[in-house]
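Supplementary Methods. Inverse-folding protocol.

Structures were first reduced to a C-alpha cell string of length 104. This string, shown here, constituted the complete conditioning input.
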C-alpha cells in the first residue's frame, strides 16, 4: 500500500481513496482509476479460498442450514473487504506501470 513509484509514501489517504499526488515523488494518482477490477479480483480470490471451507461445512459437518449460510457469508464478506485495498493498489500499480490511458 505504498507508492509504486518510490515505495515510500502511502498510496491511500482513506480506505479506498488514493492520494492525489505522492508527497515523496510527485506522481499524480488522482487520474488513475481501477474501477471494478479490484472488486472482481477480491471476489475471485475470496471465492477460491473459501471453497474448501464451504465444501467441508456442507458435506462433512451436520450444521443447520442457517448456520452454514451465515458462517460462509460472513467469512466471504470479511475476506473480500480485507482483500479490497491491496487489490486496488495492485491494479493502480499495473495501470500506472503500463501507462494505460486514464479517465482524467
Amino acid at each position: 500500500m505504498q507508492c509504486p513509484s518510490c515505495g515510500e509514501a502511502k498510496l491511500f489517504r482513506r480506505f479506498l481513496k488514493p492520494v492525489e499526488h505522492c508527497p515523496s515523488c510527485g506522481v499524480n494518482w488522482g487520474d488513475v482509476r481501477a474501477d471494478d477490477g479490484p472488486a472482481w479480483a477480491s471476489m475471485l480470490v475470496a471465492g477460491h479460498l473459501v471453497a474448501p471451507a464451504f465444501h467441508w461445512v456442507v458435506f462433512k459437518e451436520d450444521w443447520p442450514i442457517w448456520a452454514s449460510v451465515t458462517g460462509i457469508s460472513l467469512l466471504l464478506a470479511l475476506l473480500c473487504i480485507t482483500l479490497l485495498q491491496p487489490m486496488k493498489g495492485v491494479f493502480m500499480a499495473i495501470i500506472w506501470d503500463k501507462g494505460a490511458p486514464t479517465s482524467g
